[in-house]
Write a structure and sequence with these properties.
mainly beta; 46% strand; 1 helix
Length: 125
């Protein structure tokens, strides 16, 4: 899939990015445990390769699946706010404005390994 800023994508098309760093297993499960508790915010985030996304906030993990039975690889599903880099055109995404700049409320699906802290993540609205 082409994730360049010049390509047009429908708002329902998944946007796939590589995860270069992220939380350990305990933080993932805490984020899952408190996904629906508005009083608790777990500092779970993923570092995304490239310059299109500046940060991911309000990460709520709503489902965790063991990917291979090792206890170290997971399929994750949930919602988050994706903060986009201001220098990249995102006219194809419904953006809101908040304290950290422009963001989109998105659902996500990710494959993530806590062993090497790498994986892939897809965002969609």
């Amino acid at each position: 899939m082409n994730t360049s800023a010049n390509s047009k994508k429908s708002s329902t098309e998944k946007r796939i990015f590589n995860i270069s760093n992220g939380p350990g297993r305990d933080i993932l499960f805490d984020a899952f445990k408190y996904a629906y508790n508005n009083k608790v915010e777990i500092p779970a985030s993923f570092a995304i390769e490239g310059n299109e996304i500046s940060s991911i906030t309000k990460l709520r993990i709503q489902s965790i699946e063991h990917e291979d039975g090792s206890g170290e690889s997971f399929n994750l599903f949930g919602t988050c706010h994706v903060n986009f880099d201001a220098d990249v055109d995102h006219s194809d995404v419904e953006l809101k404005t908040g304290s950290l700049g422009s963001y989109a409320s998105c659902s996500f699906q990710a494959y993530y390994s806590v062993r090497n802290r790498k994986g892939t993540i897809s965002f969609y609205q």
